[in-house]
Amino acid sequence: MEKRSFFFQGDKLLLPADFPDSQINEGLPEEFAKYFENPDFFEIPAIDEIPASVAASSSPSSVIRAVSILPEAALPENWRVIPVRQILAMFSAEAPDGNPGRILRACHIAQWRQDSRFCGSCGAQNNDVQGQAQRLCPRCGRSEFPRICPAVIIIITDNEDRILLAHNKRFKNRVYSHISGFNEAGETLEATVAREIREEVNVEVTDIEYVKSQPWPFPCSLMVGFKARYSSETLRPDGDEIDDAGWFSRDNLPELPGNGSLSRFLINQWLKGAL
Ligand SMILES: [Zn+2]
Questions:
Q1: Span 222-248, pLDDT tens digits
Q2: Domains defined along the chain, listed by start
Q3: Span from the CA of 127 to the centroid of ligand 1 (angstroms)
Q4: Please, which residues have CB less than 5 A from ligand 1, an ion?
Q5: What is the dihedral of CA 122, 126, 129, 130, to 10 degrees?
Q6: Least crowded by CB within 10 Å, which of 40, 51, 221, 244?
């Protein structure tokens, strides 16, 4: 079985400087493990290879080795560091398989593994479960799986062919993006959509529909893209998270999020008339 490795420091991917960008989502072949002293390999199936129709009966032909390298560890000579967010821009979000799925999976797992060394119930040191993204407490039997926190992101349109975009206070640049936010415990995703829009810009929407999702391992989200139509109330930024918001037409767009992100995908689809 082929074993491909991904080395991370937090949410940054580590690579030999001359490793080609075109093969970045494949991972590094086995011989590259020698560059790190006793790397702590955690092996999981490469789920992107399993066709959905046979997923239950088939096993993948390769595994991903997700390796978390401690922040203070020195890099091998002539290696480079790439933020995983930056890697997204190398892939076309328009394509059905446009996500660097293996990197996103490995990045999520590597960070989860760092954070799940001890049982959350009794504090004992967890054991790995062979071949699965699972850890097991030897003392109390508690299983631990990677946490996935869904967040919604919504493209809001009005009857004048405009979209609502907002500037978040946390953004260091002048980029305007969609309203987004985390799903709360006990809440449907549709309710999250309506609540976040109401809280952040005081607007009510209708016709809430799912569009597309994107794994977002920073450190453990799944971005769930929706569209919705404006129905009532006056646009008013909350001043807390959102410091400015507006309705933008096609010929009057502000600075937009980068390619490869779900937010930019939603805008591009709207520009093409597909939303
Ligand atoms: Zn325990």
A1: 999 999 999 999 999 999 999 999 999
A2: 2-115 (no CATH), 117-147 (no CATH), 149-271 (3.90.79.10)
A3: 10
A4: 119, 121-122, 124, 137, 139-140, 142
A5: -170
A6: 51
